[in-house]
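=== RUN LOG ===
request id: a7f3
mode: sequence -> structure
chains: 1
length: 306
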Amino acid sequence: MTHSSDLPVRVTIPALLQRKQKGEKITMLTAYDYPSACLLDRSEVDIVLVGDSLAMVMLGYSNTLPVSMDEMIYHTRAVMRGCRRALVVGDMPFGSYQDGMSQAVQNGIRFIKEGGCAAVKLEGGKQRAGIIAALVEAEVPVIAHVGMTPQSLNRFGGFKVQGKSVHAALSIVEDALAVQEAGAFAVVLESIPAPVGQAITARLHIPTIGIGAGPHCDGQVLVWHDFLGLLDAKPPRFVKKYANLFPEMLEAANSYCREVREGSFPDDQHQYDMVETREFLDRVEEIYGDYSAYPSHEGSFQKGKV
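=== RESULT ===
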């Protein structure tokens, strides 16, 4: 029987708000499956985001728009099986809340009930304030997302830095204040100039989580595949690779292929022995004939080896 004292202390929303008040930084990373969730849950990360970025890094799409609610729920459930400590957040995909409050609340509740996560994230500022308020009223905690919102890439003309002019920057400040007023407990700031991220962070009482928004945010988030260097692609400017695993994984795959082809894998330590090998081989030969009559198997094992 597992005692409550043996369980890890789960990160909570009130704890994150206290981090903001104390000036302690918050860490967030994305995860999309059970193995990555298990690893992150054993790390020091505070929040695990099941991001709609899985459309690109897991499913191979060129942007986040095609991923569905069912796919997001599927991956969120896998992540939840690996997380006992970190706060897990599900990312509301494109088309899951754009139709209004009723649709948003229904899908937000799906994330909590079916996905098992503690909160959801959705994109947009002032225009999403009513939806955020409705979700919060329905007991679905929300992380907002302003600045460069990937689901708006068609309107932006691509993945482009936002808030570069005074007017545009002030609009993002207004967005951040609006989502706070609506009840979001945190807000992601993506791809905006560092001074804009600093100004927003200083004026909000909820945490800001930056991704390409400078060092003054209350926390930072990166995508799993980006910070580990799992893909053979140039990452955005705001990404720091803490490892470069793609070349190592490629070499591992090639080493495996070479050893299989040359016959050095599997070796003795990677196979199972049989106590009655000689008796088995004699019986097979008695029933099916001498194996040497089958050229494709000639020399594949040693008769009589025990």
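=== NOTES ===
Residues 82 and 277 are 42 Å apart (CA to CA).
DSSP finds twelve helices and eight strands in the chain.
=== END ===
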